[in-house]
UniProtKB/TrEMBL annotation:
<dbReference type="Pfam" id="PF00583">
    <property type="entry name" value="Acetyltransf_1"/>
</dbReference>
<dbReference type="GO" id="GO:0016747">
    <property type="term" value="F:acyltransferase activity, transferring groups other than amino-acyl groups"/>
</dbReference>
<feature type="domain" description="N-acetyltransferase">
    <location>
        <begin position="5"/>
        <end position="173"/>
    </location>
</feature>
<protein>
    <submittedName>
        <fullName>GCN5-related N-acetyltransferase</fullName>
    </submittedName>
</protein>
<dbReference type="InterPro" id="IPR000182">
    <property type="entry name" value="GNAT_dom"/>
</dbReference>
<dbReference type="InterPro" id="IPR016181">
    <property type="entry name" value="Acyl_CoA_acyltransferase"/>
</dbReference>
Length: 173
C-alpha cells in the first residue's frame, strides 16, 4: 500500500506545508483533551531549525504532496540523559531520536505513522545506528499504539518543558 510513498529530507520550500500539518496535529491533540503541544511547541522556528540541522523529513504521496512530517535526530537528546527509569542500551551506545511525528488530517492514511517509523528504522541501520529512542505524552494513544505495534520497550519517563513524557527505546536487529 505504501510503495508509492517516499520519505525524504525536508527542504525550506516545504516549511509552510510542514507547519500546516503540525498545526493540524496541535489541534487534534487539543480536541483529544491533551495538553501535549498546547504550549507553543512545536512552532515554525522548530521546523526551521529541524531543516537547517538536517533533522526534518517529509513523507510524500504519489502526487508528491506532503502527507506527514518527522524529525530524525542523530545527536544526543539532553532530556534523555536524565531518564527516570533505564534505557535498554548502555550510555555509550549511539542512538537516533524521533520527535514531532505528525500526519496530515485532511486525508489521513491508516498505518502511515507505522510505515514512517519502519522507514526510519531502515535509515538508522544504513547509518549503523541500532538504537532508537522516542517519547510521547502519556495520553497520545495513537503514538503509544504505534510503539506497541513496532515492539518499542517502555523505559521510564523523561521531562520536556516541565512535563513528563513516556520514553521508549527499540534495539534494531
Amino acid at each position: 500500500m505504501f510503495e508509492k510513498y517516499t520519505l525524504t529530507k525536508a527542504d525550506h520550500i516545504y516549511s509552510s506545508s510542514i507547519w500546516h500539518i503540525l498545526k493540524q496535529a496541535i489541534k487534534k491533540r487539543k480536541l483529544e483533551g491533551s495538553k501535549q503541544w498546547q504550549d507553543g511547541y512545536p512552532n515554525e522556528n522548530i521546523i526551521k531549525n529541524d531543516i537547517e540541522n538536517g533533522y526534518g523529513y517529509v513523507c510524500l504521496n504519489e502526487k508528491k504532496e506532503i502527507v506527514a512530517y518527522i524529525a530524525l535526530i542523530f545527536d544526543i537528546e539532553p532530556a534523555y540523559e536524565n531518564i527516570e527509569g533505564k534505557w535498554l542500551s548502555s550510555p555509550e551506545t549511539p542512538y537516533a531520536v524521533i520527535h514531532r511525528l505528525a500526519v496530515s488530517q485532511e486525508n489521513p492514511v491508516k498505518g502511515l505513522a507505522t510505515w514512517i517509523m519502519q522507514e526510519i528504522e531502515k535509515f538508522c541501520k544504513e547509518k549503523d545506528i541500532y538504537s532508537i529512542k522516542v517519547d510521547t505524552n502519556y495520553d497520545n494513544i495513537g503514538m503509544l499504539r504505534v510503539f506497541e505495534k513496532l515492539d518499542y520497550t517502555y523505559c521510564g519517563e523523561v521531562y520536556f518543558r516541565g512535563g513528563a513524557r513516556k520514553a521508549f527505546e527499540k534495539i534494531l536487529a
